[in-house]
């Protein structure tokens, strides 16, 4: 099954994220063994501690864990929505993976966000501007990547909406008028606008009803097969993880407790928390 | 020299050009910084003046800080030398400096303007001072000052571009009339004060120095001589200026100037006159001289 022997698209080394000022006890008094990620001494939240993993080309990596385990903090740090406290992140498409992208200037980070990454949030409000038309939202991503030809922007917008199965007459409507599932698909279209090599999906199907959820998942699966994008899929839903991903990280209280092939984790979980998680699946 | 100085002599005297030398120094330093970073808005300590903020105090403070006794001053409001705003500001400057004034833009060394660039191209050595109400071009898409500063810093102008895109989708053309956003020196995007689109191309590679002052918003920015200024445009939807084809000025007959639309008070008839009155007067004078010459020949 493991066919990925190439260089990783994304390497994360020792990534940590702290909300609060932190103290020497933060690392020793939090974690899965304490079932806690809030430091009892200084009340800082250790959202992520020493996370390392690789993402290979064309691979879908799942991140699973309960609420507050640091899943969203992780993708937000990767998308520069949050500043990571420490750690290193390397992107193969940026300067041949030589630079730690957490330390590059803000304008370069913006370039990475617009050219090399796409992000789909759980809440469409975060990823879309609801007072701008769906076409305009896609145009924003294209314009941010310095495409200033109006007809080409329209053309690419149309193709993306077609790909994400949004009827063409919604192109110039504001996303407020669309249903939740459609908003989510517009968000996916926007994230894909610049053909990024890396796509981050943060709880994309949470809050959608089962049939809409299935359509969105089908879409992601189909897009991945067509475009061979590397993806990170964050979800608390093991069904989604099982359907989409090749490999899975299990997070608990900001720590990485298990890494492995998705099937392996589902069938034979090693860590006590992973076992609990798998057994609690409906 | 002037009434104000004469009346108050012996008891109290205003400084040359009204504001004190310390304040002038501060404003001059900010002007130099603005010139060094074309199109970048430099915050400055805006002073109280005997006119209300929002009535040209930004431009006025710049003029007061750079004017000297040998300067020749022209003050215009929407191109007009005679409107209330222009007359009041000119009176204040003349009373406190005693400089010579003119209506002829070729003669002036400092021109303070509200929302127009004179029709006759300005030369090296001339300074055009703009009164700016809203210096932030991104305000229409982002209300937060902290955000707009970050956006300028990171050159993140896509939301502004999207507003142009949405305009074209809705109206088939960009619907911004005045204060059309421009990119200065291939870097910062600037609000060129509400000058009409007609005047935007005059800013590009202009020989004169352009200084923009916003008194209420406390910002100074500049377009130095020979600086590239480009209006934002999609490459297949080019920037267009106001169309006056087929129209001419009723006073001087000019066909290639920016025109104001006016309704005759008595007849209700619509007619057009040059917005730049100084230039209009010059053209009228020229027309009359030509007429006289023809008459003399005959």
User: What is the CA-CA span between the terminal residues of chain B?
Assistant: 48 Å
What is the helix tally of chain A?
A: 10
Largest sheet of chain A: 6 strands, mixed
Largest interface (CB within 8 Å) is between:
A-B, 20 and 19 residues
**Mind telling me the C-alpha Rg of chain B?**
21 Å
On the 0-100 scale, what is the average pLDDT of chain B?
92
Biggest sheet layout of chain B: 7 strands, mixed
What portion of the residues of chain A fall into strands of 2 or more residues? Answer: 15-25%
- The string of secondary-structure elements of chain A, in order, is EEEHEHEHHHHEHEHEEHH
Query: Number of DSSP helices of chain B?
Result: 8
Give me the count of strands of chain A: 9
Radius of gyration of chain A: 19 Å
Helical percent range of chain A? Answer: 25-40%
Topology, element by element:
The complex is a heterodimer of chains A (282) and B (298).
Chain A: E1 10-19, E2 45-55, E3 60-64, H1 71-78, E4 86-91, H2 106-115, E5 117-120, H3 124-127, H4 134-144, H5 150-163, H6 180-192, E6 198-202, H7 210-227, E7 230-235, H8 238-244, E8 247-252, E9 255-261, H9 262-267, H10 272-279
Parallel strand pairs in A: 3-7, 3-8, 5-6, 6-7
Antiparallel strand pairs in A: 1-2, 1-4, 8-9
Helix pairs in contact in A: 4-5, 4-6, 5-6, 6-7
Chain B: H1 3-8, H2 21-36, E1 42-43, H3 57-66, E2 72-77, H4 84-97, E3 100-101, E4 110-114, E5 127-131, H5 145-153, H6 158-171, E6 182-184, E7 188-190, H7 197-203, E8 209-214, E9 219-223, E10 229-231, E11 259-263, E12 270-274, H8 277-297
Parallel strand pairs in B: 2-3, 2-4, 4-5, 5-8
Antiparallel strand pairs in B: 1-9, 6-7, 6-10, 8-9, 11-12
Helix pairs in contact in B: 2-3
